[in-house]
Specification:
By secondary structure, the protein is mostly beta strands. It has one helix at 2-27; strands at 33-35, 40-42, 60-63, 67-69, 73-76, 78-87, 91-94, 98-105, 111-114, 118-120, 124-127, 131-134, 137-140, 144-148, 152-155, 160-163, 168-171, 179-182, 185-188. The strands form three sheets. Strands 1, 2, 3, 4, 6, 8, 10, 13, 16 and 19 form a ten-stranded parallel sheet that branches. A six-stranded parallel sheet has the order 5-7-9-12-15-18, with no helix packed on it. The protein is globular, with a radius of gyration of 22 Å. The N and C termini lie far apart (84 Å).
Length: 192
């Protein structure tokens, strides 16, 4: 009889260990990369994402073409914009790095919070009331930014934003000029 009770308890212990292992594996699993289809949809519309999967807090979203409208608050682990347009009056929270290698942030009054910093490596349009908020470490290494229409760039307190080339911020989109709110550190480490 004692043996049966012992086997039962051993089974429960293994069940608990197994459950802990599954939880740890789920927490440490790498982020899924979810790719925009290139169409023109709201972020939450499954038709806009390859495979019909809308990226969530643990995923990396990639947009290379088309128009993504953010009309609510959404959160992802990373965001790569290499083409197309991010627009809308909602908020995109990026816990990791925002990589901007092409495309545009324009239209409406949306907010992109780059909580893990940003890497800007290309030219793009940044206008029409869009707000880009930088935390952590951000770099701008190539391209020019076409701005206007009330766009806001904020480098938060404690954040570091640097450039290492002679980049150009152009005011050519009309309306109110870009507002650069530097509450952290901005450094030009190379160029003239």
């Amino acid at each position: 009889m004692k043996r049966a009770i012992h086997d039962c308890c051993l089974g429960r212990k293994l069940g608990t260990v197994g459950l802990v292992y599954m939880l740890f594996a789920a927490i440490s699993a790498p982020a899924a990369v979810i790719i925009w289809s290139g169409g023109s949809f709201d972020w939450t519309n499954t038709a806009g994402w390859t495979g019909g999967i809308v990226p969530t807090v643990g995923d990396i979203a990639q947009v290379g073409a088309g128009t993504v409208t953010v009309s609510t608050t959404v959160s992802v682990a990373g965001f790569d914009l290499s083409g197309g347009t991010l627009t809308g009056a909602g908020t995109l929270n990026v816990s990791g790095v925002f990589t901007w290698s092409g495309g545009n942030l324009t239209g409406s009054t949306g907010v992109l919070n780059a909580n893990g910093g940003a890497v800007i490596t290309s030219s793009g349009v940044f206008s029409s009331g869009q707000t880009l908020t930088l935390s952590g470490v951000s770099t701008w290494t190539a391209g020019s930014l076409s701005t206007g229409s009330g766009a806001i760039l904020t480098n938060l307190s404690g954040a570091n934003f640097s450039t290492n080339f002679d980049g150009t911020i152009l005011y050519n989109q009309g309306g109110v000029e870009l507002a650069f709110n530097n509450q952290g550190t901005f450094a030009k480490t190379a160029g003239t």
